[in-house]
Specification:
Among the domains are: 116 residues, Methionyl-trna Synthetase, domain 2 (Beta Complex), CATH 2.170.220; 146 residues, Isoleucyl-tRNA Synthetase, Domain 1, CATH 1.10.730; 90 residues, OB fold (Dihydrolipoamide Acetyltransferase, E2P). The chain is α+β, with helices and mostly antiparallel strands. The strands form 8 sheets. The protein has a 5-stranded antiparallel β-sheet with strand order 19-18-17-20-23. A 4-stranded parallel β-sheet has the order 3-2-1-13, sandwiched between helices. The longest helix has 31 residues.
């Protein structure tokens, strides 16, 4: 390791408008926690800084939709996120929030220092203003027609139908999402960070001095630098955030991209009010940011420029950003509810925190997008954690209790195979160290599992149970070697599976060892008494996996209404004769599962309608109900029955259907218009 005295590790601040899902965990929080736990095992001085990002437009939009305040939103999700991380074993030294008084003061002071030093550019530009609401509109509050695909519900910053990046002035027929009125352009003044002035320094600092950064990080930074940097606004017109601390800046707050990374600093000050400068201003501190690829530019270009412009701060030594994790071969989407939420997993798989930690680390999207599937989750648990790691430990401990009353037997004469097995442990340690220190956590986890594989294979090859009756001395040596490997596993897996290693240390009746003990063949002393064996992992059955897949599918359907159909004219609508009617009789159509034959009173006649609603209504349920029907639909024959109209139904995203009917009884034949 490099000769740093201390390590400041930060992880991206999750946005407090929803819970944490497995994509966040695999991309940021599991690797960050593995790294921090490893540093602590090595006796390094380390602080792990986290917190919720609680400002920005999406939170105000969610609050407006729910009819509550932005503070209500962030209070709710900050608690959910913080509790989930604690239960999952993400070992922050502090998990705070950007709505705190400490953060507001720190961010405000940071801005003011740059402002007083003349760093910012002040510019007045024309931006959309909602005269009815009396406020400037953030891009997400402006809706209109996409000029590229014609989507009538494109936002001022992006069309979610075609994916195009937009500016508000490009929208056709823009309107305010707040009042629905047409916005007008008003002049407004903001402050800009002149990124272009720092481009030569950034090119040298990143492209020359940090060639060791991951290829995806280095490549994205180079692409941005090669395209040329432009000044970027650090303030915006909004009433939720850190107020701009300048006279005459009422109604303006710090842009969330500027405000959020200062959260690492403010949270450190909150944790260490009298000692924070050692962690942010001493060159003997190594700072590492763990983020996802969508935050690379902010942490590698913008935040370093902020720190450089301010002066006196250290800069990040590394930013090991990951790619994205997909779910069941599809992108994780919170809007479609296509996600596995951490707080729900913890409730539904109690005691299996480490199974998810293992699977997410084993399939981490370190160099490219990767995929999480429930089948792979089950396979890795049953075939690796249960069958290899858990099986090895259980056999070693059970056999020790069976043949040596639960005490570590003596190490007698070693065979070449015994020596070769023990000699593998320092090599595994060396590889694991190298992989963690170069941020290859997936490979490091393989190293740890290779140690368990080594022990499992050793017991399978030596078969001590076959020698018990004839060579007790040999059995003693075999079980001593196996137990030493178990003790080494308790160290090797500690960064990855903290709940499991705690259980393993209890079985071994052993307190936690430091990293220096890893690789030693004598961690457990002769005659040391073990506790009774217990399973480290349980098999996960098919029914549990099918339940999760069904839940995922149902949740996704519930959150995804059918897309809007092509536009029709008023004349098209007026051609339809929609009337109220009452169902007089109903019966199932023979040899069908979905069809009901209905006799309905339309007010103008009594007619027969065949409708595919048998999965949603029994004949007894539908008789007597008042409904709406399309009366002038061309008759058609269905299963030999002439159907004279169509019942109007509402189909929900999960496929269930309900009749459309008046909220109080009306005369049959009343027209719907």
């Amino acid at each position: 390791m490099n000769n740093y005295k201390r390590y400041l590790v930060t992880s991206a601040l999750p946005y407090a408008n929803g819970p944490v899902h497995i994509g966040h965990l695999a991309g940021v929080y599991v690797p960050a926690d593995v790294y921090v736990r490893y540093l602590r095992l090595r006796g390094r001085e380390v602080k792990f800084i986290g917190g919720s990002d609680e400002h920005g437009v999406p939170i105000t939009i969610k609050a407006r939709k729910e009819g509550i305040t932005p503070q209500d939103i962030v209070d709710k999700y900050h608690l959910i996120i913080k509790d989930s991380f604690e239960r999952f074993g993400i070992s922050f030294d502090i998990y705070s929030r950007t709505s705190s008084k400490m953060h507001h003061k720190t961010a405000s002071d940071f801005f003011r220092k740059l402002y007083d030093d003349g760093i910012f550019i002040e510019k007045t530009t024309a931006q959309y203003y909602d005269e009815e609401a009396g406020q400037f509109l953030a891009d997400r509050y402006i809706v209109g027609t996409c000029p590229k695909c014609g989507n009538e519900n494109a936002y001022g910053d992006q069309c979610e139908k075609c994916g195009s990046t937009l500016s508000p002035t490009e929208l056709i027929n823009p309107h305010s999402a707040i009042s629905g009125s047409k916005p007008v352009l008003h002049d407004t003044t903001h402050w800009y960070l002149p990124l272009d002035r720092y481009e030569p320094w950034l090119r040298r600092w990143i492209l020359e001095e940090h060639r060791e950064w991951k290829a995806n990080v280095y490549g994205q930074c180079k692409s941005w630098l090669d395209s040329g940097l432009q000044p970027r606004a650090v303030s915006r017109d909004l009433d939720w955030g850190v107020p701009v601390p300048v006279e005459g800046a009422e109604g303006k707050v710090l842009y969330v991209w500027f405000d959020a990374p200062i959260g690492y600093l403010s949270n450190t000050i909150e944790l260490l009010p009298n000692d924070w400068e050692r962690w942010w201003k001493d060159e003997e501190t190594k700072m590492v940011h763990f983020i996802g690829k969508d935050n690379i530019v902010f942490h590698c270009i913008m935040f370093p420029v902020m720190l450089k412009a301010h002066g006196g701060f250290i800069l990040p030594d590394n930013v090991p950003a990951n790619e994205f994790l997909n779910l069941e071969n599809d992108k994780i989407s919170t809007s479609r509810n296509w996600a596995v939420w951490l707080h729900e997993y913890l409730d539904e798989f109690p005691g299996k925190e480490d199974v998810l930690r293992y699977v997410l680390c084993a399939s981490a999207p370190e160099t490219k997008d990767n995929d999480f599937t429930w089948n792979d989750f089950q396979t890795r648990n049953n075939s690796e954690l249960v069958a290899i790691f858990g099986n090895f430990v259980n056999r070693a401990v059970v056999l020790t209790h069976k043949y040596f009353e639960g005490r570590v037997p003596p190490l007698n004469a070693l065979t070449p195979y015994d020596e070769a097995t023990l000699n593998e442990m320092p090599l595994i340690k060396q590889s694991l160290e190298n992989n963690i220190e170069t941020y290859h956590f997936r490979e490091a986890l393989k190293d740890a599992m290779n140690l368990a594989r080594l022990g499992n294979k050793y017991l399978a090859d030596t078969e001590p149970w076959r020698l018990a009756a004839t060579d007790r001395s040999r059995v003693a040596t075999i079980l001593n070697v196996a137990l030493q490997i178990c003790a080494n596993c308790a160290i090797a897996f500690e960064p990855f599976l903290p709940f499991t290693t705690q259980k393993l240390r209890y079985i071994l009746a052993k307190s936690a060892d430091s990293w220096d003990a890893f690789g030693r063949p004598d961690i457990l002393a002769e005659a040391h008494k073990l506790n009774e064996a217990q399973l480290l992992f349980d098999k996960i059955e098919d029914r549990e996996i099918e339940k999760q897949k069904a839940k995922l599918k149902a949740a996704s359907k519930l959150s995804a209404p059918a897309p809007q159909k092509d536009a029709c004219t008023c004349d098209d609508f007026m051609k339809m004769d929609i009337r109220t009617a009452t169902v007089l009789e109903a019966e199932r159509v023979p040899k069908t599962d979905k069809l009901l034959r209905l006799k309905v009173d339309t007010g103008i006649d009594v007619r027969t309608i065949v409708s595919g609603i048998a999965e949603h209504y029994s004949p007894e349920d539908i008789v007597g109900k008042q409904i709406c029907l399309l009366a002038n639909l061309e008759p058609r024959r269905i299963k030999g029955i002439e159907s004279q109209g169509m019942i109007l139904m509402a189909q929900q995203p999960d496929g269930t259907m309900r009749t459309i009917r008046p909220d109080s009884p009306v005369e049959n034949g009343a027209t719907v218009s």
